[in-house]
Write a structure and sequence with these properties.
This protein has a six-stranded mixed beta sheet with strand order 1-2-3-8-6-7, with helices on one face. It has a two-stranded antiparallel ribbon with strand order 4-5. The chain has two helices and eight strands. A hairpin with a 2-residue loop joins β2 and β3. It has one domain: 2-Layer Sandwich (60s Ribosomal Protein L30, Chain: A), CATH 3.30.1330.40. The protein is α+β, with helices and mostly antiparallel strands and 127 residues long. α1 crosses α2.
Length: 127
């Protein structure tokens, strides 16, 4: 099975040795997104909710570039430096996903790139 890199200017450019997403067959593996504004590569202004929305907007842009959307997600992983923000993530996700919701894990971590407090990745199925 071959793999194909996915790229879009509508999401932050990769800041390391990875692709924004990689397609393999009908599955697309979206790299973790942090709350960077694609045009500036700066962290979005605002509170935790604004940062979470930017994360899911970035994921959605990559999913769209792959020919899908976040509603094609089968698995989401959310990384939080403060699990007290879990309820806010749930509320934000309601605006990006329809039932049936994807499987999800929420992981508390000590730190994330660029000192942000939220990151998420996804696996979408285009089948």
């Amino acid at each position: 099975m071959s793999k194909q890199a996915i790229h879009t200017d509508s999401a932050p450019a990769a800041i390391g040795t990875y692709s924004q997403a990689t397609a393999a067959g009908s599955l697309v593996f979206l790299s973790g997104q942090i709350p960077l504004v694609p045009a500036t590569m700066e962290i979005v202004d605002g509170d935790f909710e604004a940062r979470a929305r930017q994360v899911f907007s970035n994921l959605d842009a990559v999913a769209n570039a792959a020919g899908g959307s976040l509603n094609d997600a089968v698995k989401i992983t959310v990384f939080l430096t403060n699990l007290d923000n879990f309820a806010t993530v749930n509320a934000v996700m309601e605006d990006f996903f329809e039932r049936p919701f994807p499987a999800r894990a929420a992981v508390g971590v000590a730190s994330l790139p660029k000192g942000v407090d939220v990151e998420a990745d996804a696996i979408i199925s285009l089948a």
